[in-house]
Amino acid sequence: MTLTIQPLSSEEELADFECGLESVDVWFRQRAWQARPHVRTHVCHVDGDRIGCFALRLAIVEVTGLSSALRAGANASGQSIALLLAQMGVEKSLQGRGHGRTLLQEAMRAAAAVHAVSPAQLFVVDAENETLISFYESAGLRRIDRTYRLMAPMSRIVKALTV
């Protein structure tokens, strides 16, 4: 099995992308290319077949009232720079084969590379639904009470990737 992760290029056609979540499908089909200046979209292939995509962007998040681990590095206003997993989706026909974990791990690797050269201190995900919250929690992200937002310090992400 050969996994390749590449930034979205003009050669990649996403018009037929379908993961089954309409907001994600529409974003990758219609907005990913135009968002390039602000959002870095990656396309993942296994043995040449597209398995899915993920998109990362920098964000400023409010961390006041959160754990000390999540507040580390915050400014005096209680804000921290984060890497937001803006979108992620596995091709619908390939779901249930572990590709979601693979995409998330690769998104975390890409975030760790950015973290190494930027002030980003957190990895953040805004889950689409309760099922996805469980998925992200199983990867070590912590749910922010009564929201669909999950976070982890980038130091924890980097450590998990080196184990």
From TrEMBL:
The keyword Cell division does not apply. Residues 3-163 form the N-acetyltransferase domain. InterPro entries: Acyl_CoA_acyltransferase, GNAT_dom. Keywords: Acyltransferase, Repressor, Toxin-antitoxin system, Transferase. PANTHER family: ACETYLTRANSFERASE, ACETYLTRANSFERASE-RELATED. It catalyses: glycyl-tRNA(Gly) + acetyl-CoA = N-acetylglycyl-tRNA(Gly) + CoA + H(+). This is Ribosomal protein S18 acetylase RimI-like enzyme. PROSITE patterns: GNAT (PS51186). Pfam families: Acetyltransf_7. Gene3D superfamilies: 3.40.630.30.
